[in-house]
UniProtKB/TrEMBL annotation:
CDD domains registered for this protein in UniProt: TM_PBP2
Regions that span the bilayer: 12-32, 65-87, 99-126, 138-161, 182-204, 210-230, 242-263
Organism encoding this protein: Candidatus Rhodobacter oscarellae
Pfam families: BPD_transp_1
Segments forming domain ABC transmembrane type-1: 63-261
Keywords: Cell membrane, Membrane, Transmembrane, Transmembrane helix, Transport
Protein name: Putrescine transport system permease protein PotI
GO annotation terms (biological process): transmembrane transport
Length: 281
């Protein structure tokens, strides 16, 4: 019975992994396809990588814009989301806490179309009232991305704060450390895995967003998902496969780096806990 169950789980996991990764593998393979027609195999070639690097300036303009937006979005989302999580976990009960918590997680369940329309109406109203923003583009897309990304960061950091306890923070306070010193010397370093995870999650969500960005962008401010979507409607060129392959490689490297950071932080936390237990004993 145990062997049958183990084989069943192995088969299901294998099928799940195949369902997820086979399309990516096919995309990488077809990025080396010589044929201009994506599904028709014309032999191995790096032709479309050359086209991508030397004949597709609009693609790289979209990549630069998407990366700039994603970086600013992820950084701001981590700062604001971390402060929100600290307020929810470390500040105890305060007036409006329930409302604040509900508003914090609302972007997680709100349909993207509704979020996009509401932000578009907001920006149009602000432009009519105060003349800002003068045009929709980098700034409006970044603000829109921060509004939903910080919710993911806050949930990630909040879970970490809830699970790691306050023993070391209370000990530092008892020894005379100021609250800001406790925050920067103890709390933030222990939150590193959650902060890194939240930053990468916000960065990825920004790069991946199409619906909200399409509402709050303007002429000449095409992010990479918007550019790819517009090309699909007119006929997808194989150089997009080459670009997607490069993105997969970059993401894989970033995930590996994040996993290494989290593993080292976990080992450091275990060592600190062992030292604390020995000191207490």
């Amino acid at each position: 019975m145990q062997g049958t169950r183990s084989r069943f789980l192995t088969v299901m996991i294998t099928l799940g992994m195949a369902f997820f990764y086979i399309p990516m593998i096919l995309l990488v393979i077809y990025s080396f396809n010589y044929s201009r027609i994506v599904p028709v195999w014309g032999g191995w070639s790096t032709r479309w990588y050359e086209v991508l690097f030397f004949e597709s300036p609009e693609v790289w303009a979209a990549v630069r814009l998407s990366l700039q937006i994603a970086f600013v979005n992820a950084t701001c989302a981590v700062i604001i989301g971390t402060l929100a999580a600290l307020a929810m976990v470390r500040f105890g009960r305060f007036r409006g806490r329930t409302l604040f918590g509900g508003m914090l997680v609302a972007p997680l369940v709100m349909p993207e179309v509704i979020t996009g329309i509401s932000l578009l109406v907001l920006f149009i109203t602000l432009q009519q009232l105060v003349g800002w923003p003068a045009e929709r583009g980098f700034t409006t897309i970044t603000i829109a991305h921060i509004t939903f990304s910080l919710a993911y960061v806050a949930i990630t950091v909040q879970a970490r704060l809830t699970g790691m306890g306050q023993d070391l923070e209370e000990a530092a306070s008892d020894l005379g450390a100021k609250p800001f010193k406790v925050l920067t010397a103890i709390t933030i370093p222990r939150l590193t895995p959650a902060l890194v995870s939240g930053w990468l999650l916000a960065f990825t969500l920004s790069l991946d967003d199409l619906v909200i960005a399409s509402f709050v962008t303007g002429p000449g401010a095409n992010t990479l998902p918007i550019l790819i979507f517009s090309r699909i409607r007119l006929g997808l060129r194989p150089d997009i496969n080459a670009l997607a392959t490069i993105i997969i490689l970059v993401v894989a490297v970033c995930v590996a780096i994040a996993a290494l950071i989290m593993y080292r932080q976990h080992k450091r936390d275990l060592r600190d806990e062992q030292l604390a237990e020995r000191g207490g004993g």
